[in-house]
Structure formats: structure tokens, C-alpha cells
Design brief:
Number of helices: 7
Shape: globular
Largest sheet: 22 strands, antiparallel, barrel
Strand content: over 45%
Length: 798
């Protein structure tokens, strides 16, 4: 059963038990480079299929050694254990066999990553608690975590919610990025690499089915088009699932989705030192998302009572989240599409390599919401349709081969245009809920605000990094980046509708004005800043690397393109972060075990945050003076025997509002003008997060054919956390542990694989966030986590 929302603020003691159980496990090294690298989970996954490694100490085959993972974090192929970079990598093979198809699922394997999701536009990716605060998205704010696919930066977090297709690997870097690649980010980067065209014919077909009407089909084909000069690849995926919640107002299933992704590529290699890769992609998502359930009713100090307010309009609320029922009377859906074109050219000789990445992308978003999540007419419509385009050009030059000094330098140009068309309209219950029960309903009923906004961003940057190999064991790395950002934003809002408040009704006009008025303004910002990083590493032995890193990150100013409350600034100050990290990478027990550990400290000044007004359902941007995140990360992967592979990752992250003396208040303090959150936990970040799992395989003979039977399981855990930026006691999400499992048979040569699977095997009931309803009447609404799902998959390869 669910833990009641009113009681869930009492943090559980499970964190200590989990720490004791998993505390000996290991980290995901340090992140100071380009978003390409390696994670123990992926290393473990790859090792099961990799050829036997050689133990340099004995010069004998180590049949059960963990396979070497090669990364290109510094634009050259290197063993990840010898690169002073903290990276987590999930290989495509691991993603496939664990049925991992989106960023939300990926975050279960990388404890330092937090993914919050209300709907696609309001998705947030954080690393070590930093990036963007939990809350709603804003067109005037850039994400703190960079999201890349095939070297192209995707600015809008919504594009990370599509299903992933034909993935080669996913890499997660932690800490400020920017001295080795294009867009600057303060909290880290997630880089996804898709499978490239091949000159050897390949094909893959996969089909999955499960409960709740789940169906997924994938197809990929690759091969030569013109001899050994031109190759092509096409990938297609489609996914459907029915809704997991029933809207009792119309008895329809809600929160289901349909996804379609198509990706086509060409690879041109006329000579051995030049190649050109073209990529075109299109993705579309149709959902009837995202409806909330009534999770509880609190008694706020303002004296409001949700039951009484609802009964005044003949509505009797029912608190029963386990029934998975919503009750809303306005259409709820979210539709989006994204796509683009990119071209990457690579030329090299014996001394240098030059890379150019040119890209154009778009993202369109059409939503409809019920702003009060009730069958009443409080907020009838609240929607914000977005239309975004971006172009980018990156040019890099890097050294080739083994040099006393290795280097990479580059230039980056980025331009984005995003415009929005939205509407906020009020119904006959709005005056009662949002203003005062004594205010006539005619004040708000029919009152509508239609608005358009736009934000244009131009970013120019020069960056570079060099590695000085002082001795065969000691290395010094330094990098600098200069970024100049110019932004322009505007708002045009027209308020209309409702009964004219003239004559005897004129005294009611200020109450209507409190809901919003006509408004128009423009705002600009332009600023440049320097950031960079430096680290020192020591290769003590072939199997032990120690390193210390310092990085300075910078994020440009944000723009408020909404109607602002008195005293709020239209320009949100730039954000800067100082990060210090020390790490140790080791191979142990004849390379049967890889253990990486690091400790980190990050201080973020002028942390850019969304401030949400639950009374009117509006938001704006502001700065939190100071946020701090510090902790320890550990990663362990092992191959005890040829048949058994194991992994575990643990993150301890003490992320707090270090200085936030005038913060908005939660529902329990709603009568206060502000609250002091100094020293309070940073919302959305658990003190402890853990992932662990493994797979056991057993050879079998099926007649003349050899196959492998296997069983695998993956466990993820997070300790309690707040889901509202105010640290309201009513927003606490209790500690959560989830288990996924699979059981199957596959051919030894990898030609086919058939298995059954289950996600949330224990059928745990949980919320992904809890928030106060509009009007602060005590209603608490929550988004439900997925129930137990199960199904089967058949995969064929040629």
C-alpha cells in the first residue's frame, strides 16, 4: 500500500541499511571531458561478450577478466581505466537485454543521474542534484545537463523523453563540461551514440509485447551502397502502451503513449583518412498524458478545507491512489515531434585530426491540460505550445598519435529560436478556489489570457584542452573556454472574456487583475565568461590510476518571458559552479574486478530555478544564492566466473540549499511571505542512490546447436527525497526500491535471443512526485509510478 502523503515526510532508515549492504561498491570516475566514455554497468555488459583479456602481470590469459572498455573521451581511443575522467557508460548490448529504452530507465542504472518528469516539456535531467531544479520548464532557461546524440546538442529536455533506437552506447559525464566540445554545461552531460553504417551487411529485428497493451517493434539494417565507399543504415522503432490510469469522468484510459522514430544515415569514406557521416531523423509522440491522482488532503494553516470547497460545487473527492483513478473534466494530452539533419566530417593525417559537426534541429510541442485536476471548472485550460529550431556548427582540431603534449581546440556557434502560443482560462469555480469564496463567480468565469512568447539565443565559444605527459606516470591537463551568449525575449499577453467589470462591478476589477492582465514587454541579455578545468593524474601501476580535478562551469543568463510578480527581475543572473573531484581507478584480482571511487564537492552560485505559484498555477525564474553538492560515488563490476557477471554503483550525495533565506514556502507554511531554506536538502536529490545487478548464463545443447540459458536481475534504490522545490513535508517521496528481471535463451553466436521480462517485479506502488493543488486548499496530487509490467521479447540479428 502507499505511504500516506501526510506521513511520508518522516524519512525512513533504509538508507543506512542500503549503505551497509552496498557501501563497499564503487564509483563512476571523473567527468572533465567530451561526452564519450565508460560506465561499469556497460563494461560489465560488454565483458560477457568480449574476448578474454590478458593479465600483464602473468602474461597468461585471464579467462574471467573484465573486458577492457575503450573510450574516446579525449578524442582518441583509450582504455577508460587510464583516463582521468569520471564517466558512466551503458553499452547498447546492456540496454537491449535489460529492455531499457528511455532516459528515465537509464537513470536507474546511473545513481548520480536524477530524471524528473511531469510531462515531456517539463522533464528535467540533473546530475549530482545540479542542472535545473525540480519544477516546470521554461523557454527562457537552458538546461544545466547537456544532452547529445551523435555529437549534436539537443537544447530542450523534452527531446530526451523519446524512445531510444539503434543505440551503440550512452555515456554520462559528471561536473562542468566544455573544454573539449561544443555547448557549455554546468552539471554534466549525457551523450548518446547510435550505431553507424557498416560496409558489412547487418540487420536486426526485434519485437516485444506485454501487459497494458504494450507493443514495441524495432528494425535496423546496414550495409554497402557503393562498393567500399558509401554505406547506409536505417533504423525504425514504434512503441505503444495503453493508459495506466482511468479517468472516471469519462471512463477513458489516460497516461498511455504512441512513439515512432525513424533514423537514416549515410557514411562516405572515399579515402582512409577522410569520412563524412550524414544523419537524418524524425520522432513523433502522441500521448494522453499526464493526468494526476488525488493522493491526500492536508489541513493548511490558511484555514481552507478541500472537502468543503469541493462540496460547495457538489463534488465529493475520493482519496484512493491505489485505484489508479483520476477525475478531470478537461482534455489532457501531450503531442510532440522532433527531428533534424547533421553532417560530421573527419579528416586526419599522421599529425592532426580535424572534425566538423554541422546540425539543424527542430522540436514542436502541443499540449492540453486540466490545471486543477478535478471535475470542477477552476482552471479550464492551461497550455503552452512550443515551436523550436536550432542550428549549430562545431569545428575541432586535435593532435594524433603519442605526443609529449596532446591537445584539442575548437570553435562553436549555436543559434536557437523558440516561440510559444499559450492560453490560461478560468471557470465558474475559479473565484471561489483562487480568490475568496465571497467573490462572485462572474469575476473569473470565462476570463482568459492568450499569450505568445519568443526567445532567441546566439552562443559563440572557443575552447581548448592540452595534456602534458610530464613522465610516463605523471600527467597534467588544463583547459579553457570562453563563451559569449546573446539573448532576446518577448511576451505579448492579451486578457479578455468574462463579464465587463464596469459600473457597480468596478470594485471587483482588482480581484480579476490578480489572475493576470494584458501585458507586453521585451528583454535582452548579453554576456561573456571564462570557464575551464585542470587536473593531475598519477598512473601508479598498470592497474591503478589516481587523479584530482578542478573545474569551473558557467551557464548564461535566463530570461523571464511571463507576467512577473512585483520585484521579480526579467533577467535571471548567470550561474557559475566550482567543482573539485578526486578519484581512484583500479583493476583487482587478476582483473576480475574493476573498482572506481571518487569524492566530489561542487558549489553553485546563483543557481537558476523555477519558482512556482501553486495558487494561480503560474511560474517564473529566479536565482537561489548558493547551492552545494558533495559526496562519494563508487562503481564495481566483476566477472567471478565465465558464467557470472555482476555490477553495483552507489552514490552518496549531500546536496543542500546552502544559502536560500527568502525561498517560497510549502503548503504547511503557506501563510508566510517566505521561508528560510538554508541548509535544507536540495529537492529531487536523494542522499543515497544505488543500482546493482548481474546475469548468470549456462551453456546448453539443443541438438547440434549450442545455446545459453540465462537469468538476470537489476535493482535500483533511492532514499527519501522532496519532490517540490519548497521542501514541503507534503512533497516527500519515501525511499524506493525496484527490481527488474529477465529469463531467456540465446544463441552463442548472438544471432537470436528470446526472453521474458518484468519491470517493477515486486509490484511496488509509488509516486514520482507530489504537489499541492491550485488554490492551496489542501488537495495533494501525485503522479503514479508504473505498476508491475511484464512481457516477452524476440530479437534476431544477421
Amino acid at each position: 500500500m502507499f505511504i500516506s502523503v501526510a506521513e511520508s515526510h518522516r524519512f525512513g532508515t533504509g538508507a543506512r541499511r542500503m549503505a551497509a549492504l552496498f557501501g563497499a561498491t564503487a564509483l563512476t570516475a571523473l567527468a572533465a571531458a567530451h561526452p564519450v566514455a565508460a560506465h561499469p554497468v556497460a563494461a560489465q555488459a560488454a565483458s560477457a561478450q568480449a574476448p578474454a583479456a590478458t593479465d600483464p602481470a602473468s602474461a597468461q590469459p585471464a579467462a574471467v577478466a573484465v573486458g577492457e572498455v575503450v573510450v574516446t573521451a579525449r578524442h582518441r581511443s583509450e582504455d577508460v581505466q587510464k583516463v582521468p575522467v569520471a564517466v558512466s557508460v551503458l553499452g547498447g548490448q546492456f540496454l537491449a537485454k535489460t529492455n531499457t529504452t528511455n532516459i528515465a530507465q537509464i537513470s536507474q542504472f546511473v545513481p548520480s543521474v536524477q530524471f524528473s518528469f511531469f510531462n515531456a516539456r517539463n522533464a528535467n535531467i540533473n546530475i549530482r542534484g545540479l542542472g535545473n531544479n525540480v519544477g516546470l520548464a521554461s523557454d527562457g532557461l537552458e538546461p544545466g545537463v547537456g544532452f547529445y546524440i551523435d555529437g549534436v546538442y539537443y537544447d530542450r529536455p523534452a527531446t530526451a523523453t523519446f524512445d531510444l533506437v539503434d543505440i551503440d552506447r550512452v555515456e554520462v559525464l559528471r561536473g562542468p563540461q566544455g573544454t573539449l566540445f561544443g555547448k557549455n554545461t554546468t552539471a554534466g552531460a549525457i551523450n548518446i551514440s547510435t550505431a553507424a553504417p557498416t560496409f558489412t551487411p547487418q540487420a536486426l529485428a526485434e519485437i516485444s509485447g506485454g501487459n497494458y497493451g504494450y507493443f514495441q517493434a524495432k528494425l535496423a539494417a546496414s550495409g554497402p551502397l557503393v562498393g567500399d565507399v558509401l554505406a547506409g543504415r536505417i533504423s525504425i522503432a514504434t512503441t505503444t502502451r495503453e493508459g495506466l490510469v482511468t479517468n472516471v469522468d469519462d471512463n477513458n484510459k489516460v497516461n498511455g503513449y504512441q512513439d515512432l522514430t525513424v533514423r537514416a544515415q549515410l557514411l562516405y569514406e572515399p579515402t582512409s583518412n577522410f569520412k563524412l557521416r550524414f544523419i537524418g531523423d524524425y520522432s513523433k509522440q502522441d500521448t494522453n498524458c499526464c493526468d494526476l491522482v488525488l493522493a491526500g488532503v492536508a489541513s493548511p494553516p490558511n484555514g481552507k478545507n478541500f472537502y468543503a470547497y469541493a462540496q460547495a460545487f457538489g463534488y465529493t473527492p475520493v482519496v484512493n491512489p491505489a485505484a489508479r483513478q483520476a477525475d478531470t473534466n478537461s482534455p489532457i494530452f501531450a503531442r510532440q515531434e522532433t527531428g533534424g539533419l547533421s553532417a560530421q566530417a573527419d579528416w586526419s593525417n599522421s599529425q592532426i585530426a580535424i572534425t566538423s559537426v554541422t546540425a539543424w534541429r527542430f522540436w514542436n510541442w502541443w499540449p492540453s491540460n486540466d490545471g486543477d485536476y478535478t471535475p470542477l471548472n477552476v482552471i479550464n485550460t492551461t497550455q503552452n505550445g512550443d515551436y523550436q529550431n536550432q542550428i549549430s556548427q562545431e569545428l575541432r582540431i586535435a593532435s594524433v598519435g603519442n605526443n609529449r603534449v596532446d591537445y584539442v581546440g575548437g570553435l562553436y556557434v549555436y543559434h536557437e529560436q523558440i516561440s510559444a502560443i499559450g492560453q490560461l482560462s478560468f471557470g465558474n469555480a475559479a473565484s471561489y478556489f483562487l480568490l475568496n469564496p465571497s467573490i462572485p463567480s462572474l469575476v473569473a468565469n470565462g476570463y482568459t489570457q492568450n499569450f505568445t512568447t519568443s526567445v532567441d539565443t546566439t552562443s559563440l565559444a572557443a575552447f581548448g584542452q592540452a595534456v602534458w605527459h610530464v613522465t610516463p606516470k605523471w600527467n597534467l591537463t588544463g583547459g579553457l573556454r570562453y563563451t559569449y551568449d546573446e539573448k532576446y525575449g518577448s511576451l505579448n499577453q492579451v486578457a479578455s472574456g468574462g463579464v465587463p467589470l464596469t459600473g457597480a462591478l468596478a470594485a471587483l476589477a482588482p480581484y480579476r487583475a490578480a489572475l493576470g492582465t494584458s501585458d507586453a514587454f521585451s528583454v535582452t541579455s548579453d554576456k561573456g565568461d571564462l570557464s575551464g578545468q585542470a587536473d593531475i593524474s598519477y598512473q601508479a601501476t598498470d592497474n591503478i590510476l589516481a587523479y584530482v580535478n578542478y573545474a569551473k562551469g558557467y551557464k548564461s543568463a535566463g530570461l523571464n518571458v511571463v507576467q512577473l510578480p512585483a520585484g521579480a527581475s526579467p533577467v535571471v543572473a548567470p550561474e557559475s559552479i566550482d567543482s573539485v573531484e578526486a578519484g581512484l581507478k583500479t583493476r583487482l584480482l587478476d582483473r576480475r574486478v574493476t573498482l572506481n571511487v571518487d569524492a566530489f564537492w561542487e558549489q553553485d552560485d546563483n543557481y537558476q530555478a523555477n519558482i512556482y505559484d501553486p495558487t494561480l498555477g503560474k511560474q517564473y525564474l529566479s536565482n537561489v544564492p548558493e547551492v552545494r553538492s558533495e559526496g562519494v560515488e563508487a562503481d564495481l563490476h566483476a566477472q567471478p566466473t565465465e558464467n557470472l557477471s555482476l555490477y553495483s554503483s552507489v552514490t552518496y550525495d549531500d546536496a543542500i540549499y546552502q544559502k536560500y533565506p527568502a525561498a517560497p514556502c510549502g503548503l504547511e507554511n503557506i501563510t508566510k511571505a517566505s521561508c528560510n531554506l538554508d541548509g535544507r536538502p536540495l529537492a529531487g536529490t536523494s542522499l543515497w542512490t544505488v543500482s546493482a545487478g548481474g546475469e548468470y548464463q549456462q551453456p546448453l545443447n539443443l541438438g547440434a546447436k549450442q545455446v545459453q540459458a540465462y537469468v538476470g536481475a537489476d535493482y535500483s534504490y533511492r532514499s527519501s527525497t522532496y519532490s517540490a522545490a519548497t521542501d514541503s513535508i507534503y512533497s516527500v517521496l519515501p525511499q524506493l526500491g525496484l527490481i527488474n528481471a529477465r529469463l531467456g535463451v540465446r544463441s552463442v553466436d548472438g544471432r537470436w535471443d528470446a526472453y521474458i521480462w518484468s519491470r517493477n517485479l515486486g509490484a511496488t506502488k509509488y509516486f514520482t512526485f507530489v504537489a499541492a493543488g491550485v488554490g492551496n486548499t489542501g488537495a495533494l496530487y501525485a503522479q503514479l509510478g508504473d505498476p508491475q509490467t511484464f512481457g516477452g521479447t524476440i530479437r534476431l540479428k544477421y
